[in-house]
Amino acid sequence: MSNITNLKILIVGLTTVLALNNFAKDRFRKEVLGYCDMYTDVMSNQNINITNV
Fold first, then answer.
1. What's the distance, CA 42 to chain centroid?
2. Which pLDDT value is given to residue 8?
3. What is the separation of C-alpha 32 from the centre of its chain, rounded to a whole number of angstroms?
4. pTM for this one?
5. Residues 10, 17: Cα–Cα separation, whole Å
6. End-to-end CA distance of the chain
7. How far is CA 51 from CA 7, 43, 45, 46, 47, in A?
8. How far apart are CA 12 and CA 41, in angstroms?
9. How far apart are CA 49 and CA 36, in angstroms?
10. What does the pLDDT read at residue 7?
């Protein structure tokens, strides 16, 4: 293969890796924020129950 073909393959590969990396970071961030929201809701419900007792 020529150097230009190798360079094209390298560029496509790196672009794919970067896109997947950004997708994974975004998904991980959404899951972490979801767990934080769930934890906040649970703690809020516990505080409400404690004050109502």
1. 23
2. 92
3. 8
4. 0.50
5. 11
6. 76
7. 66, 12, 10, 9, 6
8. 43
9. 20
10. 92
Burial 15-43 (b: 16+ CB within 10 A, else e): eeeeeeeeeeeeeeeeeeeeeeeeeeeee
d(CA 3, CA 11): 12
Per residue in 5-51, pLDDT tens? 999 999 999 998 888 888 888 777 777 777 777 777 766 666 554 45
Element (H, E) at 21: helix 3-52
Report residue 48 as tokens: 């409400």
pLDDT for residue 40: 72
> Scanning the structure block, which residue is given the tokens 């007792």?
53
